[in-house]
Design goal:
Blueprint: E1 3-11, H1 17-30, E2 35-43, H2 51-59, E3 63-67, H3 75-80, E4 83-87, H4 91-99, E5 103-108, H5 118-128, E6 132-135, H6 138-144, E7 153-155, E8 175-178, H7 187-196, E9 206-209, H8 215-224, E10 230-234, H9 238-246, E11 250-253, H10 263-269, E12 275-278, H11 283-286, E13 292-294, H12 299-310, H13 314-326, H14 335-345
Helix pairs in contact: 4-5, 7-12
Length: about 350
């Protein structure tokens, strides 16, 4: 019997971590003839879907729609579904699914900042209506479930499409950074640390990718005070992103504010690229063995880490690479997990 699954995700209209995961899981399930899918994107107030996200939704070849206000949620799609699978426990989705006795699955991506506020209690209640709750890190889970963890919940990284192949060690050079260029991502600290680190900049260039409100400001500052070895590429395609990550010796992810999970370290590990990360939220959970963990916002410890990896001999580096790569499969859930889990929950 075909299982009808309604996939729902919030979005700010651009392709970010939640959107990538939502699209990837939809693609996983679409390939199973036992599932029939419909998709809904809930746009956050003040945002609209950009063309690139619309194109990716269209490319799935599935029926999809959008809504913004709770009263605009297409109730007919809730009634149609056997299983409602929502990214983050959107209250109106969870309450209607529960009211209509639908099996409800929630993946929770974000730390709950004020769990005992009225809004926080509302979201926690919505989450507890789910038959199964999947959190993207123990860090996130701890903010939603303050009592002993429920038997109906698990914590594991949410990943989308990653290469999952060891990139060649020969020819790897330097460091790579990719993130949204917004405050608290550690961009200024990384630039200061790289500028002052005592390394061979020919062998240890720094390639930075991504876009956001800080990009133009940082480019202007770097133009006024150039940094030898630095390349700022801005936004790149998924293919180029993975190519650049695989060509680097280390990925650096140095946010000063807590991260819910940290997708880029997982993307780096999928090619055997070890990481330097800050002890920020869920990052230490996903960075893997052999990674270096530094203090958030502390330029000095970041300089020390950059200089330390720059002095590693090739044999030690190769051991770290294989440990980083080989341990990844135990950390993540692949397409077959979601297919099996959603079969069983129905």
């Amino acid at each position: 019997m075909t299982i009808k699954i309604l996939m729902i995700s919030p979005t700010q209209g651009e392709i970010g971590g939640i959107e990538q995961f939502f699209l990837a899981v939809s693609g996983f399930l679409k390939s199973d003839p036992n599932f029939e899918l419909r998709l809904i994107a809930k746009t956050v107030s003040g945002y609209q879907l950009d063309e690139s996200l619309r194109e990716l939704l269209d490319a799935l070849g599935l029926r999809w729609t959008t809504y913004q206000r709770p009263m605009q949620l297409p109730i007919q799609d809730i009634l149609w579904a056997d299983v409602v699978y929502v990214q983050n426990p959107i209250p109106e989705v969870c309450f209607l699914a529960y009211l209509f006795r639908k099996r409800l699955v929630v993946t929770i991506h974000n730390f709950l900042l004020r769990p005992y506020s009225i809004q926080g209690l509302r979201w926690r209640l919505a989450a507890r209506l789910a038959s199964v709750r999947w959190y993207n890190s123990q860090f996130v889970r701890s903010s939603w479930e303050t009592a002993p963890p429920s038997a109906r919940s698990e914590a594991f990284p949410t990943v989308s499409n990653m290469p999952m192949r060891l990139s060649p060690l020969a020819g790897r050079k330097g460091f790579v950074f990719i993130s949204r260029w917004v405050p608290n991502k550690g961009i200024e600290e990384l630039l200061e640390a790289y500028r002052n680190a005592r390394i061979d900049r020919h062998e240890w260039p720094l390639t930075m990718m991504g876009s956001g409100v800080l990009l133009r400001k940082i480019k202007t500052e770097v133009a006024a005070r150039p940094i030898t070895g630095l390349s700022i590429l801005g936004r790149v395609s998924e293919a180029e992103k993975h190519l650049r990550i695989g060509a680097a010796k280390w990925l650096i992810a140095p946010p000063s504010a807590p991260e819910d999970m940290g997708l880029t370290p997982l993307e780096a590990r999928s090619q055997g690229v070890p990481c330097i990360v800050t002890n920020s939220g869920g990052l230490p959970e996903v960075c893997g063995p052999g990674s270096l963990i530094v203090t958030p916002g502390n330029v000095h410890t970041l300089i020390e880490a950059i200089e330390k990896v720059g002095a590693l001999d090739e044999r030690t580096y190769e051991e770290i690479v294989h440990s980083t790569f080989d341990s990844l499969n135990a950390s993540i859930r692949v397409a077959s997990f979601y297919r099996k889990a959603l079969h069983e929950i129905n």
